[in-house]
Design goal:
The chain folds into three domains: 4-86, SRP54, nucleotide-binding domain (Four Helix Bundle (Hemerythrin (Met), subunit A)), CATH 1.20.120.140; 102-295, P-loop containing nucleotide triphosphate hydrolases (Rossmann fold); 308-408, Signal recognition particle, SRP54 subunit, M-domain (434 Repressor (Amino-terminal Domain)), CATH 1.10.260. The protein is built from 18 helices and eight strands. It has helices at residues 4-18, 25-41, 46-62, 71-86, 114-127, 144-155, 168-182, 199-212, 227-239, 257-266, 287-294, 300-310, 313-324, 330-342, 346-351, 366-377, 381-385, 392-408, and strands at 102-107, 132-137, 159-160, 186-191, 216-222, 244-248, 270-274, 282-284. The chain has an eight-stranded mixed beta sheet with strand order 3-2-4-1-5-6-7-8, sandwiched between helices. Strand 6 (244-248), helix 10 (257-266) and strand 7 (270-274) form a beta-alpha-beta unit. The protein is flat and about 70 Å long.
């Protein structure tokens, strides 16, 4: 999981400070040395690390923090505030034009996840009340158009393509006409990528920018590439000019340095973060919430938002009444389990609860919930209502059927 190594190290460092009634300058320097090493190991740019450490030291010493009643808490607050600033300060939103459609152009290297991100972005914007149109502007990569069409079909979002043309500017202009006629208020252009930045790629992207005049140019960056991601972001920004960054694969085994460096290096905000393989696994990037997660303070607001988005209010009220009457059964448990799954993996939700990162021995296997679901689905309605009737023969039947369901899924 992104930031996991950095997060655990920073939490260990801040844990030492929390209970301290007195902190000396020597203690502060030792702590900052540990923070510096943790950031460098997380692949954060050296210059950025140096500025970050100097800023914390200056504020901690300059505000008589070490002489305060709660010096440990004060230093932790400074670290958190500086981390928020490093990640971008505040949430940066999409700039929608008052005269639709708003054109969002996705750019990036091949393999960064642009096509999947296009679908994820369309999905999250539709939840905000928008009517998006996906446009296949990658005419080079084999099956790129088909991939976008499959993504659009899964989300029930329209996709515009022209497989007879290799002129991406012409395709984009055609898409604009379709969007106006179909009343699509957002157009998302999925452009071609290359294995590395070259003149031909930039020329094509500049051509689209000049002729279509997109309102937002978002660079899709694979966060697992570490400092390379920052170098790519810097190159795209200098040559093309970008309005923001979408970080993909933040659920992977990445050290997180890209997220912590990209805003400072490019001056452009991270607007979205993709956190999984599902088309729903994307979220607006909140610097303050991400800083809280890294420092083990949790992210309760994100949990609430996910719950509001995933849970059916009528079902929740019905469950509350049954709970009061003590009438809950395995059907109710299954319904709750499925609603929880819509919020994301249980292991990722656990990390958003304050203090849970400290419990290093707690292991959550999300596949276990798949097995539980398969087991309940293998029961008869009578067995779900009254599990007390389960005997040896019934358990053997359920186990056999559960195995078939779980292996099929």
């Amino acid at each position: 999981m992104a930031f996991e190594g950095l997060s655990l190290k920073l939490q260990d460092i801040t844990k030492k400070l929390r209970g301290k009634a007195r902190i000396t300058e020597s203690d502060l320097k030792d702590m900052l040395r540990e923070v510096k090493l943790a950031l460098l190991e997380a692949d954060v740019n050296y210059v950025i690390v140096k500025e970050f450490i100097n800023s914390i030291q200056e504020k901690a010493l300059g505000q008589n923090v070490l002489k305060s009643l709660t010096p440990g808490q004060q230093v932790i607050k400074i670290v958190k505030d500086e981390l928020v600033e490093l990640l971008g300060g505040t949430e940066s939103k999409i700039n929608f034009t008052p005269n639709p459609p708003t054109v969002i152009m996705l750019v990036g290297l091949q393999g960064s996840g642009k096509t999947t991100t296009a679908g994820k972005l369309a999905n999250i914007l539709r939840k905000q009340g928008k009517k998006p149109l996906l446009v296949a502007c990658d005419v080079y990569r084999p099956a790129a158009i088909k991939q976008l069409q499959v993504v659009g079909s899964q989300l029930n979002i329209p996709v515009f393509s022209n497989e007879q043309s290799k002129d991406v500017v012409h395709i984009a202009k055609q898409a604009m006409s379709v969007a106006l006629s179909k009343l699509n208020d957002v157009v998302i252009l999925d452009t071609a990528g290359r294995l590395h930045i070259d003149e031909e790629l930039m020329l094509e992207l500049k051509n689209i920018k000049q002729n279509i005049k997109p309102h937002e140019i978002l660079l899709v960056v694979d966060s697992m590439t570490g400092q390379d991601a920052v170098n790519v972001a810097n190159s795209f920004n200098e040559q093309l000019g970008i309005d923001g960054v979408v970080l993909t694969k933040l659920d992977g085994d990445t050290r997180g340095g890209a997220a912590l460096s990209v805003k400072k290096v490019t001056g452009r905000p991270i607007k979205f973060a993709a956190t999984g393989e599902k088309l729903s696994d994307i979220e607006v990037f909140h610097p303050d919430r991400m800083a809280q997660r890294i420092l083990g303070m949790g992210d309760v607001l994100s949990i609430i938002e996910k719950a509001e988005e995933s849970f059916d209010l009528e079902e929740a009220e019905k469950l509350e009444k049954q709970f009061k009457k003590k009438e809950l059964d395995l059907d109710d448990y299954l319904a709750q389990l499925r609603q929880m799954k819509k919020m994301g993996s249980f292991s990722s939700l656990l990390k958003m609860i304050p203090g849970m990162n400290q419990l290093k021995d707690v292991k959550i296997d999300d596949k276990e919930f798949v097995r539980i679901e398969a087991m309940i689905c293998s029961m008869t309605k009578e067995e779900r209502k009254n599990p007390r009737i389960l005997n040896g023969n019934r358990r053997a039947r359920i186990a056999k059927r559960k195995w078939h369901i779980s292996t099929r899924n």
